Amino acid sequence: MNHSCIQRVNRLLRDGRRRLRSGRKALAGLRLVTGSPAADADCLASSIGYALLQSLDAPAGTFVLPWVPIPRAELALRPEVLLLARRAGLAVRCLACAEDFAPERLESGGGREPELILVDSDGAWLPADARRRIVEVLDHHPGARRPAEAPGARWTVEAVGSACTLVTERLLARDPGLLDAGLALLLLGPILLDTVLFASAVERTTPRDRQAAARLAAVAGVGEAELYVELLSARQELPGLGSPELLRRDYKGGEAGGLRYGISSSPVSLRRWRDRDPAPEQAAIRFREERGLDLLLVMIAYEEPGAGGFRRELGVSAGRHTGILTDFLRQEGLRLRELSAAGAAVRWFSQEAVEISRKKLEPRLRAWLEGPRG
After folding, report:
1. Could you tell me if 196 and 251 lie in one domain?
2. Phi, psi at residue 105, to the nearest 5°?
């Protein structure tokens, strides 16, 4: 497997580690490329691929660094991400992570402000002092919003299934030779995971996703279905993870209409979750209270090839807001079927509208919270 481009990425990562150890002055001219704290495969791979592209075209004196906005130890909660990264030849140990620095605390060097590029995220989760440093957003989420603190930032939000599709298109347009087998594999995996191997039922796939995946698979020399099954298996097994880890491993939060909300995504079915923890409801309530959330949704998505294929389940923990939130979810066409007992503190549902993912639901939830709720 040809790894010349992934080796170039690894040099970026190693140079970043060296500079971090050398102190603030070594970070002069920093251009940070990052995703969201979900830190899923799409976030990681797209930010790394785009950082490579940025490193080729950045002005002299600019230091480009991919950054993972979670603690390094949290990567262990994402076995499919680690599997993909290691198979691609990525130097995972050299990744810059949350404990290395905070973007809002970085100081200017040589008269230049640090710059921030967001991929697969609009940066809403960042503190205001970090958002003002955003110079570009490259995203595929329909609810993405321009950062008010950075009105001049370049803004690209396009409706595709994966941010890696957008990055692949830009790499191919710049120079097809930038895609070696390692980088192609790294970018291919998230496209397959995010589109559920192009499943029509989930309504995520566009022709651009298929075209990008076909180019990447040819360069990587792998079968799409085989890679998908391997990554899916790693993501759904999650050995040793209890309820707290399952709730935080793929979590996004925000604030709208004066209420704080959070959405946890889990690949473990409610039945298998109860095998690990007979009372996931208590864990969900603690998780919501510890984060000061008014509303918590637990969106479960998993695949059972021998039992109907792709499925979704939904948990609602919202205290006194549970009833009105559940009414909203029903009105949004999630086609919910109650699984919990009447009066349960956390309500569980089977979600028959499998095409409605967190990506689609979050902007609707935010708009509802910001409007009149009756």
Report:
1. no
2. -100, -5
Angle between helices 224-237 and 79-88 (to 10 degrees): 140
345: tokens are 């503190």
Q: What is the DSSP string of 219-258?
A: HHT--HHHHHHHHHHHHHH-TT--HHHHHHTTEEEEEETT
Which DSSP symbol is given to 29?
T
In percent, the amount of the chain with pLDDT more than 70 equals: 95
The DSSP secondary-structure symbol of 153 reads S
CA-closest candidate to residue 349, choices 335, 357, 358, 338: 338
pLDDT higher than 70, residue 308: no
> Are 122 and 91 contained in the same domain?
yes
pLDDT tier for residue 1 given thresholds of 50, 70 and 90? very low
Residue 258 is assigned to a structural domain of this protein: yes
Residue 299's identity, in one-letter code, is M
122 with 270, same domain? no
Contact 332, 340 (CB under 8 A): no
Nearest 5°: phi and psi at 196? 55, 50
**Domain shared by 249 and 222, yes or no:** no
Q: Which residue has the tokens 């998230």?
A: 190
- What single DSSP character describes residue 99? T
Q: Look up the domain containing 150 and give its range.
A: 4-229
Examine residue 138 and state whether it is found in any structural domain, yes or no: yes
Phi, psi of 55 (to 5 degrees): -65, -25
How many Cα atoms within 13 Å fall on the side-chain side of residue 140? 22
Cross-sheet strand order for the sheet of 336-338: 251-256, 259-266, 295-304, 309-317, 347-351, 336-338
Tokens coding 27? 């970070």
Whole-structure pTM value:
0.89
Tens of pLDDT, residues 309-357:
899 999 999 999 999 999 999 999 999 999 988 778 999 999 999 999 9
- Rg, the chain, Cα only: 20
For residue range 69-93, list pLDDT tens digits in order: 999 999 999 999 999 999 999 999 9
Angle between helices 4-22 and 181-194 (to 10 degrees): 90
Question: Is the sign of the CA dihedral 203, 266, 359, 347 positive or negative?
Answer: positive
